[in-house]
Specification:
Keywords: DNA-binding, Membrane, Transmembrane, Transmembrane helix. By secondary structure, the protein is of the alpha/beta class. The chain has helices at 2-15, 20-27, 31-39, 47-57, 61-71, 110-128, 152-155, 176-181, 198-212, 235-246, 260-266, 285-293, 305-314, 331-337, 355-363, 373-377, 381-391, 411-426, 445-462, 478-505, 509-535, 561-591, 595-627, 639-680, 687-709, 711-725, 733-742, 758-771, and strands spanning 140-143, 171-172, 187-191, 219-224, 270-275, 299-303, 322-326, 546-548, 628-630, 746-749, 752-755. Among the domains are: 2-107, lambda repressor-like DNA-binding domains (434 Repressor (Amino-terminal Domain), Orthogonal Bundle), CATH 1.10.260.40; 113-326, 3-Layer(aba) Sandwich (Rossmann fold); 331-378 and 380-426.
Length: 781
Amino acid sequence: MAGEFGEVLRRLRTREGMTQEELAERSGVSARTIRGLETGKRTNPRMITVQELAKALQLRPREREELLSAAVPRDEDGDEPDGREGLDEPDGIGTPAELPADPLTLDPTPAEQLARLIATRWQREEEQRQVQDPFPLPVRWDTAPETLTDHWANILRLPANATAEPLDLSGELGEIAATYRRLPSGRLVLLGRSGSAKTILALRFVLDHLKTRTPAEPVPVIFSIGAWNPTTITLRDWLTEQLMRDHPGYAARGEGRESLAAELVETGRILPVLDGFDEIADGLRRPALEALNTTTLPLVLTSRPDEYAAAVAETDVLTSAAAIRLTDLTLDDLAAYLPRTTRKSGRANPTANAWDPVLSALREQPEARPEAPLAIVLKTPLMVALARTIYSDTPDHDPATLLDTDRFDSPEALEDHLLDNFIPTVYRHRLHGSASGRAHQGFDADRARRWLGFLAHHLTRLRTPDLAWWRLGNGLHGSTRALVTAVITGLAIGVVDGVAGIAFHGTFTGPVVDAALVGLLAGLMFGFVHWLTYTAKGKHVTPSTVRLQIRGRPETTAWKAGPRLVIGTLGGAVFGFGYGFVIGLVKGYAWTDDVSLVLHIALVDGLVYGSVFAAGAGITFCLLGVLETPLDLDSAVNPRSLLMTDRGAVTTQLLVWAPVFGAVVGFGSGVVVDLLQRPLGPLIWTSGAGLILGTISGLGGALGYALTLTAWGQWLVLTRVWLPLTGRLPWAVLTFLEDAYQRGVLRQAGAVYQFRHARLQHHLARHHGRSTLHDDFIAPP
């Protein structure tokens, strides 16, 4: 049976042109599990695994039945067994709730679908971060001081005049979900100094809570609260935006007029796990805490103690919230962990390892002397993880050098040493491929450090921990972004105009001159549109949350055709009149010196082009609004898939925009000229001129729209062209980010990357700020 299922799975995967890694990325099932199933090393796959594989492969009903049949074990007579007990070990995918008998026909609610996506994502992320390799570092906590905790009667939801004794909330990593469930208020603050594994504890809370969660309970979702500005957006609206960013399918309308994401937040179906309160910008923590206290949402909040205590001193504790404080690692913890992270020596004493002398020296230090810098540094899981990366399994790196107090005379110097050497160490070895399964040549450590420094500096200046591919160009001044967009868009449209002109006229000089003029004007126009749309309003382009679909559109799709018709018509009229007026001026001055005649020509051309472009843009935008439909609920939960989804959406829009807009402009130009002959004539226009105008307008307009007003277009212009051209980033940007993620430099948080730890980001940003000569190109905070 195992061989049969593996053969069927391999055949279906190969037919779709997927690698094992790509199937793993789409399904949430680990590549190791898929490899084991196809080779027969894993038998009797769980039905939830079969369901996710079938969904990722987009199988037809007959193929789904074939995969299901191959997955059902049979006895020697070929009959199915009575039950499914005793199946193989878990396949690396979370199951937050029990499944019906036939999971392939499962139609979960949006909340349950979200719970599955969250469990799958964070299970994979925990594996990527090697939290369980070889076993989790001990993460312990005790109850925080009373000054950081609300009244216990409020926490326990007791009636008036009731008294309550403080709870002892001490525990360790595997008990965090149980600790939270002891709090009737549903509010908990996790406090720990830098590197104390607050984020790992939050991750473990989500996974453990999902395992025991009932369908009536909210779904825990991790949000990096450091990106929240409470003075510009409410908590609920911000949670909704973040949820739609990481899960674009939840931008679809729910039962009311709001999105599914907004409904989940407003109805209390989301349990926010707010990670990184200390990363909120200075001056915003007090209003952030005040905003949190205006809500009754159950939540979990993580922070460094000092930042949280300062905010509490300015206003109040988090209402109805208990607080726990993470404790330091001990020498016993290090002795149990670090030796098991190294390879066996193969010498006479195979149990000996490079960490033994270090640990012995720390144990033998006299109590009367000040604590050694290394003993202080290795009290946090972050620094232990860095030390493991740099010195375990690295023959030419001896951890005994960390005991050199002349070289490392303070804990800060030792921490800087570990942070400095982390990047060169992880880039020592070449990976076989990116996270998408595509091979690449690898990245030089020095260049990687410079690029990572730019990214860290970029995030620090933007005051956000989220490394979003659609915002990588936002580190440039708004005027610089508009200028670069104008130049590249003008060049692209000019090339299209020149190629089309040469093809139609069969000559070279005239079309090239016309292409230069059209490219210049179009670049200026689209650059101004970009500046007016984003820079002037302080907005940022975001990925699309819709796709175009002609058949099978859901009933919940919002009607956008009417507003799109009005917006497109007005925008097309303004753009067309301006474009035609400038064209008329240029042509008029080429024909005559009479200013009044030149202005008359410019006004006529402005009216003609304005009318034609208004009709074309209005009809095209209206059609796009009719065809738009929400994305699937399980779409885009990682940076690459979101980029691919947005690229697909833009490509489809272009395939609609170019022919529709071109046809309306091409045929409409003749109609408009005929209508305006009597009041404005005589006007000279031919069918050939209409064909050329329609072709160039369709292609040029589509290009201008894509490069100027879409997230993928801005990614292409700024991140794939301008930033690599100026040396700030590599040409293969996404591959570089995936490679850094695989090496443990970055972590993945839904649709964005983040640095492994804020401490690493700040360290890289500080060193980049000292060495860079390009600060003039970076936007001020």
